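Service request form, structural biology core

Requester: graduate student, group of Dr. S.
Request type: structure prediction, single chain
Budget code: on file
Notes: please return the result as structure tokens.

Sequence provided:
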Amino acid sequence: MGLELQSGLISLVHVEGTPIMRTWNVVHLQSKNLSPAAEALRYFILEEGENYLAEHDRRWLLPPS
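Core staff response, request fulfilled:
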């Protein structure tokens, strides 16, 4: 999405009261084994997700200058 924003193919619309911050949960049935890819995604979300979002989304959350 960053490339599309930078090139002008899409625009970011600033709406008062956004972004709406929510708490997300990562769940899966304990009786099911996750695939290696799903386990890697689960690990990344739990261990790195908050920092990743803070680093990568902050530039899109700033109001236009």
